[in-house]
Design brief:
With 491 residues, the protein is α+β, with helices and mostly antiparallel strands. The protein has 12 helices and 14 strands.
């Protein structure tokens, strides 16, 4: 049995009418195809990356004019442009094989479930320590599932022991994709970078592996921060073992390609100082909300330190007015250990004039308000997780109100009116949460605790009039005039 990832139908999809079918990659441009339909969300986000990468490889736009002229789907053209790459996309058989070591590997095969980030490693299984990861779920994989798992693993590879390289974006990168909401082709085309089409020789499995046992680093093409290989990197040296028309094992050797200096167009980046190298953003465990927006969905004023994914920055020049959303997804990792998989649909944020600066201020003000709440709760709740959960509740409770504030900014409402509105929202929520925890049974507490709670309530309220460390930060973020001071103290 064989599978060619260009010619054959192997990708399960959901259609707009609710039906399901299996398509070849070029059929993503057919009408009515909505989204991939793999049984795992990490495979679905990686499948979108793969489809974007295939278009970037075979038929990318040259510039914004070319992108706009080709927005309408053209399955026949895509099929024609992908055809020269057919020899590079066999999954099993002879010759070069998709994302696998050229010429094969010798060694003892691992179980094929090693291709899934949340599978137990050998040591975890041996020590019976696989509580949050899993062993033995996939004794064999159908070829399509194996192909998708292989791509996902290479694109998001976590740390894997001595010599087993992470992906060029590290383990479990955050992925952000613009979604115009008009089906699979519009989503893919929205995120394809402007670039030159690739060649067969650009694909790393079409040549000998750049073995990195001597810390050899592979940089992007000269003068660029990205290239076709960015979508098809091979940090892991792998070879699939096929038997009976299924993948029954995976041989792995260390010291695959060690990528350095690449900037993937579908991932945001940050750095601590201007002189530092850019690092890919990784998701945190838990829900993704507006507290995480800066530098990911919203522009940050420290643009030299935080940078949205290139696909988001490019989108404004491609479409001036739209109601697009952004898919935010990725594994939250603790080194080699998966903690959570994030999949969230967020608004695409594009504001005019000083709108981005005020939006940043709204987010920063909320951060300071939540810290003020956490501090005020010290006499009521133990430190650590309990108070941090209250911060998370604060963000969740104010998220809808932030949407109202953003709508006001888009409608051209005066910045200071939006700032005053948001200040009132933050104050009301902080005091409500504090009082819900502090007031019930207050008269039954020790007198010193009562005094501390009353004092904490006063300080918390004062923050929203510009007093105290957090108050000054809130007012500064909202570009509001702080209260007058006398001899360096709050009046």
């Amino acid at each position: 049995m064989s599978l060619n990832l260009i010619d054959d139908a192997w990708i399960p999809v959901i259609c707009e009418d609710g039906s399901r079918r299996v398509i070849a990659p070029w059929q993503m441009a057919e009408a009515g195809v909505l989204r991939p339909d793999w049984p795992r969300p990490d495979l679905n986000i990686a499948c979108l990356e793969l489809l974007i990468g295939l278009v970037a490889l075979a038929d990318p736009p040259a510039d914004v004019e070319d992108w706009d002229a080709r927005r309408s789907a053209n399955p026949a053209r895509l099929h024609e442009r992908l055809a020269p790459f057919v020899p590079a996309f066999n999954l099993v058989g002879d010759g070069p094989l998709f994302l696998q070591e050229l010429g094969g590997l010798e060694g003892q095969p691992n179980a094929p479930d090693m291709l899934f980030i949340d599978s137990a490693g050998a040591n975890a299984a041996k020590n019976n320590a696989d509580l949050m990861v899993h062993r033995g779920r996939y004794p064999a994989l159908a070829l399509p599932l194996a192909a998708m798992a292989l791509f996902t693993f290479q694109a998001h590879a976590p740390a894997g022991g001595a010599g087993n390289r992470t992906s060029m974006r590290g383990g479990g990168p955050l992925v952000t994709l613009v979604d115009p909401g008009q089906g699979l082709w519009s989503l893919v085309w929205a995120n394809v970078p402007d670039c030159a089409a690739g060649k067969l020789t650009d694909l790393p499995w079409m040549r000998a592996t750049r073995v990195s046992d001597k810390a050899l680093e592979t940089a992007p093409p000269e003068g660029q921060v990205f290239g076709v290989e960015g979508f098809f990197g091979m940090p892991r040296r792998l070879r699939l073992v096929e038997g009976g028309g299924q993948i029954t094992g995976v041989i792995q050797k260390p010291w695959g390609t060690n990528y350095a200096g690449w900037k993937h167009p579908l991932t945001p980046y940050y750095r601590q100082k201007v002189a530092d190298i850019w690092l890919p953003v990784h998701p945190r465990a838990g829900s993704f909300g507006y507290r995480h927006w800066l530098g990911i969905l919203a522009e940050a004023s420290d643009g030299t330190l935080r940078e949205r994914a290139a696909c988001l920055r490019k989108w404004r020049g491609r479409v001036l007015f739209d109601n697009s959303s952004v898919i935010v997804a990725g594994w939250a990792m603790d080194n080699m250990k998966p903690r959570d998989f994030i999949w969230s649909v967020q608004p695409y944020l594009e504001l005019e004039a000083d709108g981005p600066l005020m939006l940043e201020g709204l987010i920063l003000a909320a951060d300071q308000a939540s810290l003020a709440l956490r501090m005020a709760l010290e006499p009521v709740l133990a430190g650590g997780e309990a108070r941090e959960c209250e911060r998370e509740q604060f963000y969740n409770a104010t998220e809808a109100a932030l949407g109202t504030g953003i709508a006001a900014l888009k409608a051209g409402q005066a910045l200071q009116e939006v700032a005053r509105y948001w200040l009132a929202v933050l104050r009301a929520q902080a005091l409500e949460q504090f009082e819900a925890l502090a007031l019930p049974g207050l008269d039954q507490r020790e007198t010193d605790i009562i005094a501390r709670i009353i004092r904490a309530r006063g300080i918390l309220g004062g923050n929203f009039y510009g007093y105290g460390k957090y108050g000054r930060e809130i007012y500064q973020a909202l570009m509001m005039e702080p209260p007058a001071t006398k001899k360096g103290k709050a009046a």
